[in-house]
Amino acid sequence: MPVNSTIDHCKVPNNSTYEVLSWVMVGEFVLGLPLNLSVLYIFIFRYKFWKNKSIFLFNIVVADFLLMVILPAKVYHYQNGQRRSPINAECKTMHFLLFLNRGASIAFLITLSIDRYFNVVHLGRRNFVKVLKKTPQISILIWVLLLPLTIPTMVKTFECCNSHGRKEETPSHDVTDTFREIVYFAQIIIPFIILVYCSVRIVNRLRRKTVGEKTKLRRAVLVVISVVVVFALCFLPSTIARAVLLAVRLMDLQVEEDVVVQVYDSLMVLSYSDCLLDPLVYCFCNSGFKDAYISTFCPQFLQRKLLKADFGLGTTTTTTITTITMNCGNRTVSLPIVEK
What we know:
Number of strands: 2
CATH architecture: Up-down Bundle
CATH class: Mainly Alpha
Largest sheet: 2 strands, antiparallel
Order of helices and strands: HHHHHHHHHHHHEE
CATH superfamily: Rhodopsin 7-helix transmembrane proteins
Number of helices: 12
């Protein structure tokens, strides 16, 4: 397939679009950095995550910081008409941090969702995830296992999607490109299927529970649904756009490609908002973290309201009084039975 090699596909096709995207990333950085710093402070100094079995949540915070590191550089390149850094070492480093962040966020969020699934749907059975949460070494192992899946994304041409028909490829180059794309799509599609399955099973379990037990499970439902929302907003759109972009490039449709490239890059910028949405998951996962955060950073007049507010997530008990009437000779005795 003939390809126009004179086109620099790493230059922005429309300066105005990328100027806007750069300012969107500035907003994400300005909001995300203090938010994640405050979350990190709570986890370490107030909540002491190592004592409260919140090691996986802490790792999600660390993953979000990896994203914060690269945003200023992305802003700089977009404002200078480049889709990626022209410096090879910097380009590879940014790709590595971006996809290590994405892989770690997905891995630990999926683990939390599976933990909720076993606690609700298979209550009483041995929950291996709960055992893993108590072991810091498991978190280190997850990070190590992510490294070989992240390395293929460090190739220079990834950001510009310069593969499969863009230029003459050696067999090794073609294998690297293919493996890279498989990893990219698999790390989104497979976890999303798992999340949807866990959500459906937990919701079905909730429907079969009595009124008194539903309040205990409502938090589990919202945790899994919140993770699904994060996936649906941050990761799925850019994944679909990349599939379309690859298809357009294989067909060598340059005009259509310029449009799809802008859509893809816009949705990638949207995916960076996961560093803003992840703290919502922390609150849903752990009411202790929510209380510690509110008591530390919220004013006094808001603390009373927010700490008392249950938001439909609490574990309040419902008291039901049932009266049993017994005939004892000529007397009738009423015995109340209290159910919680």
